[in-house]
Design brief:
There is one protein chain. By secondary structure, the protein is an alpha/beta fold. Helices cover 34% and strands 29% of the residues. It has four helices and five strands. It has a five-stranded mixed sheet with strand order 1-2-3-4-5. The radius of gyration is 13 Å and the shape is globular. The termini are far apart.
């Protein structure tokens, strides 16, 4: 899914768990996440609802406004309600700064990068 300024690509993470959970999905964001592009992310997140882990890779995300942040916060709550998790990886300035200023960084589990997040998950994190 993409627009001229924003794109979301999805990849399957580690294999599903023994309990039959849907496993992990990595959503990689690229470009500017704002009011005009948030529906692209919203749709991608809705399509993955029910996954044990939705890992949002923000390494190539250059901008995120309050609309984008709200999409992520709502998706986190939906994941928790369905027994899953939504976590973030690769926050870079100025996106990281916005998460710090709003206090949202304390709500999400944030990893340095995708590899660290998936390694932590395999270790039971």
């Amino acid at each position: 899914m993409a627009s001229e300024r924003f794109a979301v690509t999805a990849e399957t993470g580690p294999e599903p768990g023994a309990s039959g959970e849907s496993g992990a999905v990595v959503l990689s964001l690229e470009g500017e996440l704002d009011h005009d592009t948030a529906d692209i992310l919203r749709q991608a997140l809705e399509e993955r609802n029910g996954a044990a882990l939705i890992l949002v890779d923000c390494e190539r995300l250059s901008f995120c406004d309050s609309t984008g942040l709200n999409v992520l916060l709502r998706a986190r709550l939906q994941a928790l309600e369905s027994g899953g998790r939504l976590e973030l990886a690769g926050l870079r300035p100025p996106v990281s700064r916005m998460f710090e200023i709003t206090g949202a960084r304390t709500v999400f589990r944030v990893y340095e990068n995708v590899a660290e997040a998936l390694t932590d998950r395999r270790a039971g994190g």
